[in-house]
Amino acid sequence: MIPFHPRPRDADRFVADLAQEEQGGAPSSRPETREVETVWDALGGLDAADFDLAANDAGSPRLSRRAMLTGAGLAASGAVGGAFLWSRRAVVHETGIGERETLVLSDGSQVTLNTATRIEVRLDGGRREVRLDSGEAFFSVAHLADAAPFDVLSDGARIRVTGTRFNVRRHSDFTRVDLIEGGVAVGPASEATSRLILRPGQAVRLDKQGLPGSVVPARLEQIADWRQGRISFDGAALAEAVLEMNRYSRIRLVVVDPRLARTPVDGVFMAGDTAAFAGALQALYGTSIARDGDLWTLSP
């Protein structure tokens, strides 16, 4: 609940402005409605957990713009029973290290943020856009026949869909897109043509300019695991496994021996449970662990 006590007349004017814009008209600008607009924007910070919404893929609630306008009137008069993100300005959502969060957007789409992830969301009648500033996110996009395409921007890349489920992870020098179902078009953010079309079960890396590389199989099991708070390895080099474990914990693992770094690792671990991962290395490979605060060094 957000404490707010505007004059009812101001709330009515704000909702009327939104309705006028919905019908293609230009909204009026009244100083007395700014406080109402501020509260409406603040509601964009609420997520699925605030409304006790299930974070699974099925049965996602969907609200029409008209229903949201009604909700805006309730919020502006102080009776906030539930609201979803809608704003002409970008609304930022982010998770810390080891955190995971599912958001329900106003168009019925869901976004699950992985550890240390930051997104900016802009949704209105003419645009559905999410910018991935860092980290990894899983999207389940609502298919709306009369809605704008849903765009995900990452570095210099644009991923465009109309309704599908896919995963986007932003690395320091590339963005990886894994498609679960539906179809996506990927390519440079600045170009509307010459885009690569992915099919379900396919994945691709996009460089910092958004240019796609070779199409490879999607990491279906690994993506399903991180959404459940797990990390799975199937023959991954220890150096690679360590980098992945470090994403979810403030404890930093370091491998100092090149031969040890190439050791293949198999198994499923809970995200953030660095102690269990290090213990498994000790038991299986006799690995030594030197602990110095949050820095753990692995050696043969």
Explain what you see.
The chain is α+β, with helices and mostly antiparallel strands. Helices cover 23% and strands 35% of the residues. It has three domains: 1-83, no CATH class; 85-223, Jelly Rolls; 229-299, Phage tail protein beta-alpha-beta fold (3-Layer(bab) Sandwich), CATH 3.55.50. The protein is built from seven helices and 18 strands. The strands form three sheets. Strands 1, 2, 3, 4, 5, 6, 7, 8, 9, 10, 11, 12 and 13 form a 13-stranded mixed beta sheet that branches. A three-stranded mixed beta sheet has the order 15-18-17. A two-stranded antiparallel sheet has the order 14-16. The chain is elongated and about 60 Å long.
CATH overall fold name of the largest domain = Jelly Rolls
Percentage of residues in helical conformation: 10-25%
Main sheet makeup: 13 strands, mixed
Distance between the termini: 55 Å
Broad structural category: alpha+beta
CATH class of the largest domain: Mainly Beta
Number of strands: 18
Helix-strand string: HHHEEEEEEEEEEEEEHEHEHEHEE
Instruction: Determine the mean pLDDT.
Output: 79
Beta-strand percent range: 35-45%
CATH architecture of the largest domain: Sandwich
Give unreliable regions as ranges: 1-8, 29-87
- Helical segment count: 7
Oligomer: single chain
Count of distinct structural domains:
3
Coarse morphology: elongated
Rg, Å, rounded? 22 Å
Question: How are the elements arranged and paired?
Answer:
Elements lengths: L7 H15 L11 H9 L22 H12 L10 E8 L6 E4 L5 E4 L4 E7 L2 E14 L9 E5 L2 E5 L3 E6 L3 E8 L2 E5 L7 E3 L3 E6 L8 E2 L2 H8 L2 E8 H9 L5 E4 L2 H4 L2 E7 L3 H12 L2 E5 L2 E5 L1
Parallel strand pairs: 5-6, 15-18
Antiparallel strand pairs: 1-4, 2-3, 3-5, 4-5, 5-8, 6-7, 7-10, 8-9, 9-12, 10-11, 12-13, 14-16, 17-18
